[in-house]
Design goal:
- By secondary structure, the protein is an alpha+beta fold.
- Helices cover about 40% and strands about 20% of the residues.
- It is built from 13 helices and 9 strands.
- It has helices at about 25-35, 40-50, 55, 70-80, 80-95, 150-160, 175-185, 200-210, 280-290, 295-305, 320-335, 345-355, 355-364; strands spanning about 105-110, 125-130, 135-140, 165-170, 185-190, 215-220, 225-235, 250-260, 265-275.
- A 9-stranded mixed beta sheet has the order 3-2-1-4-5-9-8-7-6, sandwiched between helices.
- A hairpin with a 2-residue loop joins strand 6 and strand 7 (about 225-235).
- The radius of gyration is 23 Å and the shape is elongated.
Length: about 375
Amino acid sequence: MQTPISYFTELTDPRVDRSKVHLMEDIIFITIAAVICGAETWNDIEDYGKAKESWLRHYLKLPNGIPSHDTFNRFFSALDPDEFERAFLSWIKDISELTDGDIVSIDGKTICGSRAGNSKRAVHIVSAWSKANQLSLGQIKVDEKSNEITAIPKLLDVLALQGCLVTLDAMGCQREIAAKIREKGADYILAVKGNQGCLEEDAERTVRFTKPESEWIENDFGHGRIERRKCTLYNNLSLIDNATAWKDLRAIVRIESTRYFKSSGKEEKETRLYITSSGGDAKIIGTGVRSHWGIENNLHWQLDVSFNEDDSRKRAGYAAQNFSMLNRIALNLLKQEQSKKRSVRGKRLDAGWNNDYLWTVLTN
């Protein structure tokens, strides 16, 4: 079976010829295998390679043995992250099946440990997550002197989104972003807050003075609480100033959440507003809004808790950005492997202990 490493063997090797003591494909294979098995630092990766050298020689040439931690560091600090991203997207395109109605959530995450000194901002990555495939679809680094508003369109440019429902928080509630999503053949659900002139006030007036088109109620029981979520759609846009500026805007969405905590008897209520281009009913839109948290729970939380990404101190060159990509490659592979009903952490342990299972993860 073909491993995902084959998608990365055509990368441009950033090393000068005289320093190419180890093969690029060997460096990449060892690194991905090591990260799957729990490695978090360059020293971890070197130690993993030495411990598994006899097994690795079944698949790799290793003409000069296992590379040192400095070699891994120098290689990934110099590797072009844009080229790495394109190879990642090529792999994802082949293993995922984005279908009509798939919910793609886009959100940003800061790698806190990548901040070097007070004057330099930590690396901030904007990622896309597919609910149906449970895969990270891609990522792009936010320029140090910019923000998510400029990064999101660049990420949208490289994603295949035809027929999907794209969700973003209030930072992404921008007319240009809405237009870009529609150009990609997808629909949008954008959270509304006070960052777009009178849009929030107009949306509030809409839900107050116009008749709802449809509504959907969902009840959730678990974790010591009872939660009731109500999604209501309003298709009358007469109170939205310059509604046509939002490409193909179809409805205002109101989400009302009520949480009752059994242990304390306390009750919390929250109301949120969204705009959408989707012609779906309240259930479809409500499910889309709810699914946006999947990128937090299934991607960002996993990267922080299972992969300890926030504590990473990789600061040289492109190291932080490229190691974040390596974490996403490992997470995608672990998510796709379904023979073991274990957590991501449990699968990483199994892969570290059992070479046959690691090969299954690498080739599923």
